[in-house]
Write a structure and sequence with these properties.
This protein has helices at about 25-40, 60-75, 90-95, 125-135, 150-160, 185-190, 210-220, 240-255, 260-270, and strands at about 5-10, 45, 50, 55, 80, 105-110, 110-115, 120, 140-145, 170-175, 200-205, 220-225, 230-235, 235. It is of the alpha/beta class and about 270 residues long. The chain has an 8-stranded parallel sheet with strand order 5-2-1-12-11-10-9-6, with helices on both faces. It has a two-stranded antiparallel sheet with strand order 3-4. Strands 7-8 form a two-stranded antiparallel ribbon. The radius of gyration is 17 Å and the shape is globular.
């Protein structure tokens, strides 16, 4: 079976130190959490950034500072900035980090309820615009989907040339407003993408470990980290993102999957460093 790519989503835009004191805000904290996850076995750092008070931002210079700090500690890791940002941000705000020409960036392929009155908006025209701008910069999108309809949107836009083949999907499962995090639904999602595509699964909250275990068994790739889940086990806060990566590595080894290095992940995903 193909080696396992582990993505570490180290801080996200919603979790705070009130949820877990180890959630990183500062450039130094973000770099340290990225380094720990990398040392534990993550080959991709999925990156949101914060101001020092924890406020989420897509500010280009904040991303630049975090890129430089992460690369100083782990120069070969793949840094994958989010273009999702946080609920309510404008398109221009969200797209700022692609100016740094990362190897990958996320491309959300549909609108989703995020609980209460929060709506994560991604219209078809927005997706086309984001896709075209990533193609112009030779950035591979991680097609982030929260339900089956978003896969269908990505397939349509791939056929129209807004997303290049082969596509790499991230199934975000267990979000309030998206598809549930069950074995049935992961099988459904994985069976719905085009032949030749690759995929990662991200289970939110209590779905994280069941979904990554299924993903490992099914030949997919996995995402763990504080953006999705702050607990190592029920009621036990993870001390770091590295602890969550280490748990994924232990599960993978028990199930017979070797862990991909960053350069092996590049080969699997068709990236050029």
């Amino acid at each position: 079976m193909e080696k396992l790519i582990i993505t570490a989503c180290i801080c996200g835009a919603e979790v705070t130190k009130e949820h877990n004191p180890a959630v990183p805000y500062t450039v130094e904290e973000i770099a340290e959490q990225a380094y720990g996850a990398y040392r534990a076995g993550a080959s991709i750092i999925h990156l949101h950034v914060r101001y020092d008070d924890g406020t989420p931002t897509q500010d280009l210079e904040r991303f630049r500072a975090c890129f430089e700090a992460i690369r100083a500690k782990c120069p070969d890791v793949i840094i994958q900035p989010s273009t999702g940002g946080a609920v309510g941000m404008t398109n221009d705000e969200r797209l700022q980090p692609i100016q740094l020409n990362p190897e990958m960036a996320t491309l959300d392929c549909g609108t989703c309820n995020f609980g209460g009155d929060d709506i994560f908006v991604n219209t078809e025209n927005m997706i086309k615009d984001f896709g075209e701008k990533m193609i112009a910069r030779n950035i591979k999108p991680e097609v982030e989907v929260f339900d089956k309809g978003m896969i269908d949107m990505a397939i349509r836009l791939n056929k129209k040339g807004y997303i290049k083949s082969p596509m790499h999907f991230d199934f975000v499962m267990g979000v309030n407003g998206g598809i549930s995090g069950t074995a049935r639904d992961l099988t459904f999602m994985a069976g719905s993408i085009p032949e030749g595509s690759t995929w990662t699964v991200a289970g939110v909250g209590r779905c994280e470990i069941p979904m990554i275990t299924m993903g490992i068994l099914m030949g997919g790739h996995v995402r763990v980290g504080f953006e999705d889940n702050v607990y190592l086990s029920k009621g036990v806060l993870a001390k770091s993102n590295a602890e969550l990566v280490e748990k994924a590595v232990r599960i993978a080894k028990e199930l017979g999957r070797e862990i991909a290095t960053p350069d092996e992940a590049r080969e699997i995903l068709g990236l050029k460093k």
